[in-house]
Amino acid sequence: MAKTNTVLIVGAGPVGAVLAYALRAQDIPVTMIEALASPEIDCRAASCHPPTVAMLDELGLLEDGLEQGLVSPVFHYIDRVTGELVGRFDIGAMAEPPKHPYVLQWEQYKIVLTVLDRLKDDAGFDLRMSTRLTGIQQNDEGVIATVETAEGESVSIDGRFLVGCDGGRSTVRKLLDIEFEGFTWPERFIKIDTRYDFTNLSEAITNRNYFSDPNQWMNLFKARGEDGSGMWRSVSPTLPEQSETELTSAEAVEARLQKFCPSDTPYDIVNVALYHVHQRVAATFNQGRVLLAGDAAHVNNPVGGMGMNGGIHDAVNLAEKIACIWSDGVDYQPLFNRYTRQRRKGQIDYVQAQSIRNKETLGETDPAKRAEKLAAIRRQAETQVEHDAFIRRACMIDSLNDANATL
Ligand SMILES: Cc1cc2nc3c(=O)[nH]c(=O)nc-3n(C[C@H](O)[C@H](O)[C@H](O)COP(=O)(O)OP(=O)(O)OC[C@H]3O[C@@H](n4cnc5c(N)ncnc54)[C@H](O)[C@@H]3O)c2cc1C
């Protein structure tokens, strides 16, 4: 094989971008392949939990994050039926708060644009936009990726390793025939971005809110938005039998928000998207010299904002392992096997379990069980030990610690 001195990263989403940045910080050459002509201005993830903030800090990206994002130390659980603030969780009020005692609301597209801007003049970073991965071959020396360029040409690119950061429908995972184990929820979730300031609704509203409702729960978060004036993002479930047009028409979106928060003037809607929601984890995150990270390796429902965070934890973990192999000539197989063990454990034991629990708590329809779940949140918010334990689970502190402790 002619050239084995680069890591191929497929996908310039937030996970691929952070992986590229972490590898370049170790002076490891990176070739990044992205199917789109320019990075997607993607309005999905915005919440970066405290362990992720610490990683962004280590990488030297936090200053940009603080400039472009919103610092949110507190999150609220609210009963949408009665309007009661059921639980207030304050990361800064933990007995032993993390180094960065807040969630940073930093939109995922801003993370990507920041990284690509930082790397634009870096000779060790080769970014190929409008380039789609279509095939992979690997041998003892390295990996050969087959890609299709914007001109429709089929080209080969060599690398020592290849990491699929190509999202939930990962071509890399499919080419490797790796099972994506789990299930898909029957209902889709609708996400609506609006400039309307929801603090008008009630004093219980903070930057991050979870509304419990047996009929229509809701997640409501504030991000800084493009011009810094604030963008509110709601996520709520839809009925499986409703069509996309029925759900996403201007009238339907307006009616949904008016029902949630009546307003005299029409809502200023910026973006609407409908998502199928999955809970799936790849059977393995490594096969020979090829690895999976981020949504390519695991997907979960967005209640709790854990998908991108888990992907960034993958990226940082993997960059450390690749750096060991790169400089010391260590055998890659045991380290990559350990990457799978650590990151699959974090996913299965924590992220999958917690995101399912989050969704079920908000949407509980049985009155007795709902009362029980809300009482549990009330109790956990009011007792220091339980409050702190709740935050450690919700903010992915436990998941990261436990994954990292796995041999
Ligand atoms: C409504 C909603 C809200 C969310 N909120 C949060 C949150 O607050 N916090 C959180 O942690 N997570 C959140 N998530 C999840 C988060 O958006 C994802 O986990 C995250 O985008 C995964 O990043 P990624 O880089 O792995 O994949 P992606 O962002 O999907 O990026 C994959 C990239 O690969 C490219 N690609 C795909 N196939 C190919 C190919 N064959 N060749 C070349 N390139 C290819 C794509 O074009 C894309 O650019 C949310 C999700 C939803 C739906």
Automatic annotation (TrEMBL):
Pfam families: FAD_binding_3. Residues 6-345 form the FAD-binding domain. Keywords: Oxidoreductase. GO terms for molecular function: 3-(3-hydroxyphenyl)propionate hydroxylase activity; FAD binding. SUPFAM superfamilies: FAD/NAD(P)-binding domain. It comes from the Bacteria. GO terms for biological process: 3-(3-hydroxy)phenylpropionate catabolic process. InterPro entries: FAD-bd (IPR002938), FAD/NAD-bd_sf (IPR036188), PheA/TfdB_FAD_monoxygenase (IPR050631). This is FAD binding domain protein. It comes from Teredinibacter turnerae (strain ATCC 39867 / T7901). The lineage of its organism: Bacteria, Pseudomonadati, Pseudomonadota, Gammaproteobacteria, Cellvibrionales.
